[in-house]
Amino acid sequence: MCExxxxxxxxxxxxxxxxxxxxxxxxSQSEALSDRIECEDVPEGALVGTGVSGGVVKGVARVVRxxxxxTIEKGKILIVPxxxxxxxxxxxxxxxxxxVVGGHGALVAPEYGLPEVALVSETTRRIxxxxxxxxxxxxxxxxxxxxxx
Length: 149
Description:
Blueprint: H1 9-18, E1 25-26, E2 32-33, E3 47-48, E4 50-53, E5 56-63, E6 77-80, E7 96-99, H2 104-112, E8 116-118, H3 123-126, E9 132-136, E10 141-145
Parallel strand pairs: 5-6, 6-7, 7-8
Antiparallel strand pairs: 1-2, 3-10, 4-8, 5-9, 9-10
């Protein structure tokens, strides 16, 4: 017996699979941490994540999706979807980082003295290269600001 592909189990499984999202962080105890963080006293319009390296800094955002062949001017705030050791050379010129999914940056940002906020789900959609941002790596808050603030 043959089934029409739109009515078979494979089609249903494929449709169900598209609704799934991998957790942004999975701990060593297999605990899936949510990227929905509740916080009080957050400025209106701010993005909230997890502060992984303390400090407050403001500067011009530089959104980078792939570190290959990229150079960054001194003083920029690096906005990235994730980080692994390939991103490390970019850390030398930046003053802070915002990462959608935590990773290697959370381990080395404190060593470089860089404030970092991780698990900020809307970062690469809401922040564009050239916008001024303020990040608070202690509180886990990212704000898009005017350049004169």
